[in-house]
From TrEMBL:
Ranges of residues in domain Disease resistance R13L4/SHOC-2-like LRR: 248-382
Record-linked InterPro entries: Leu-rich_rpt (IPR001611), Leu-rich_rpt_typical-subtyp (IPR003591), LRR_dom_sf (IPR032675), LRR_R13L4/SHOC2-like (IPR055414), PGIP (IPR051848)
Principal cellular location given in the protein's record: other
PROSITE patterns: LRR
Lineage start: Eukaryota, Sar, Stramenopiles, Ochrophyta, Bacillariophyta
Keywords, comma-separated and alphabetical: Leucine-rich repeat, Membrane, Repeat, Transmembrane, Transmembrane helix
Protein name: Disease resistance R13L4/SHOC-2-like LRR domain-containing protein
Transmembrane is among the record's keywords: yes
Length: 538
């Protein structure tokens, strides 16, 4: 404003030529310039101060907001940490977002890869019916399977099912593939994976090569075999699996074979009433694991079962009488467990059974005479509870066993059996006869010398007496003869003393070996480890 006034002043003074007036005008002009510059500097200073104040206020506000956010994050972190500590691996994490939950699951060892898993599957049409209600633990195998299934469906951008289901329809040249059933198989097998595969399992490493949890249909996964698009067999033995067999397994109604032997499986979480859904199951092999459970009575509903192998676990309880309903059963091995109680007489109904192994348990009571009805039986192994011999099988050896004309391996050891050795055993074509560690009395039946192909005769640690029958010298193929810790006397002539065939002669000092002097190399229960490998055997 001062500059505009100065300009007008200059214009009005241009017409004046008098010397004093010019001088006055010059002075006035200089004064006005000084005043204008001073005012301008003051305005600039005030504007700078205002800007600095505004900038300082913004910085203070930002710092304040950051401090508040930091405090909120700290409080939330402490709350989540306390919840995680209280709930543990099975805690209630339903309020945690999925990515945080995935990280927690990974830290807890439930997830072995870094897959980015999005929202749960419940939002996908047709998928909610596949998930059990009440799943709240985000680290449960069921939850992880549903989230994986959601991810795979999103990748394929379809609500009707995965590409694998469509590929399956084309490959099998069929139009009757049920997408819901296809999804159910994927969900069930994904649950199976998350329940049993840790970082050290041999199937977790298959994800990178698309042999497990791939976008292809489940029939292409390693160890999975299908028939007409339905999962029919699971071959996952010796895969270092650990955990619990999930309850969803009976969903696979077309299953015929389940082999999970020699892993680190702890238990089976199958809903017992649903076991009747496995109407096609032929083979169930869970041997060589760490299963701590009982044999459920519902197992009697698997009326097509041919092989039941539970050997080498920690299964306790008694043998259910419903085992007698398994009319198609051919192989039953529950040896090396913690079973107690008697052998059910209903086992005698299993007319197709060719191997019965209950060795090394704590079973007690008499040996059922009904076992003599098992006309196809080739191997019968009982007893073996050397740590608690008094609770072993009691009573006498039933003579009905003499009717088992196909029997080759008979072992009833470390029990509480009494009475004589039945002479009818001499009518069998045995290769192994082991009755050691009982309270058997009487003499050795000479009829045992008629067992032409006998290789192992183990009768030690009983109360046998009398003279050793000379007929034992007729045993041409004998490899081990164990008669120690009895009250026997006399001499024995073994006609074949070639060390290649004869593993050991184990006698008391009072028994003389007339033909050859071979040291006793046969100790205790080594005969058990010399049993041949039969289908499904250990």
């Amino acid at each position: 404003r001062l500059r505009r006034a100065l300009t007008r002043s200059r214009r009005s003074m241009r017409s004046l030529h008098h010397g004093d007036v010019v001088v006055a005008t010059t002075v006035t002009d200089a004064h006005l310039v000084v005043v204008a510059e001073s005012v301008e500097r003051e305005e600039i200073d005030e504007l700078s101060k205002a800007r600095r104040y505004k900038r300082r206020s913004r910085i203070i506000l930002i710092v304040f907001v950051l401090v508040i956010l930091g405090l909120v994050a700290l409080v939330l972190g402490l709350v989540l940490h306390m919840r995680g500590s209280d709930d543990g691996p099975g805690g209630n994490d339903k309020n945690i977002d999925d990515m945080s939950a995935l990280e927690q699951c990974r830290r807890r060892g439930y997830v072995s890869d870094g897959t980015n898993i999005p929202d749960p599957c419940s939002s996908i049409p047709g998928c909610g019916s596949l998930i059990e209600e009440g799943i709240v633990d985000v680290c449960s195998p069921q939850k992880m399977a549903s989230m994986w299934l959601d991810l795979d469906i999103r990748r394929n951008e379809t609500n009707a099912g995965l590409d694998g289901c469509s590929v399956l329809t084309l490959r099998e040249n069929r139009t009757n593939v049920d997408p819901t059933n296809c999804l159910e198989q994927l969900y069930t097998m994904a649950t199976f994976y998350f329940a049993l595969s840790g970082d050290n399992s041999k199937i977790s490493s298959k994800i990178e090569t698309n042999l497990w949890l791939s976008q292809e249909d489940v029939c292409t996964w390693e160890g999975i075999k299908c028939r007409q698009g339905n999962v029919a067999a699971i071959y996952l033995g010796d895969k270092n699996l650990s955990g619990i067999v999930p309850k969803e397994l009976p969903r696979m109604r077309s299953l015929r074979i389940v082999k999970l032997s020699n892993n680190q499986i702890n238990d089976i979480e199958i809903d017992l009433p649903l076991m009747v859904n496995l109407t096609e199951l032929r083979v169930l092999d869970l041997s060589g694991n760490k299963i701590k459970s009982t044999i459920p009575s519902q197992i009697g509903g698997l009326n097509k079962l041919n092989v039941l192998n539970l050997n080498g676990n920690e299964i306790d309880g008694s043998l259910p009488t419903e085992l007698g309903n398994l009319e198609e059963l051919q192989f039953f091995d529950a040896g090396k467990n913690l079973l107690t109680g008697p052998i059910p007489t209903e086992v005698g109904n299993l007319k197709y059974l060719y191997q019965l192994d209950l060795y090394d348990n704590s079973l007690s009571g008499p040996i059922p005479s009904q076992l003599g009805n098992l006309s196809n039986l080739e191997m019968l192994l009982l007893g073996g509870n050397s740590q608690n011999r008094k609770n072993g099988h009691s009573g006498t050896i039933p003579t009905e066993i003499g009717r088992l004309k196909n029997l080759e391996f008979l072992g009833i050891v470390e029990g509480n059996l009494s009475g004589p050795i039945p002479s009818v055993l001499g009518e069998l074509d045995l290769r192994i006869l082991a009755l050691s560690g009982n309270d058997l009395t009487g003499t050795i039946p000479p009829q045992l010398g008629n067992i032409t192909h006998l290789e192992f005769l183990v009768l030690g640690a009983n109360n046998l007496n009398g003279v050793i029958p000379s007929e034992l010298g007729n045993l041409k193929f004998i490899r081990a003869l164990e008669l120690r810790e009895n009250s026997l006397n006399g001499s024995i002539s073994i006609k074949l003393c070639d060390p290649i065939f004869l593993d050991g002669l184990c006698f008391d000092e009072g028994v003389e070996n007339k033909v050859c002097d071979i040291p006793c190399m046969f100790e205790g229960e080594e005969w058990v480890h010399l049993l041949p490998s039969l289908p499904g055997d250990r």
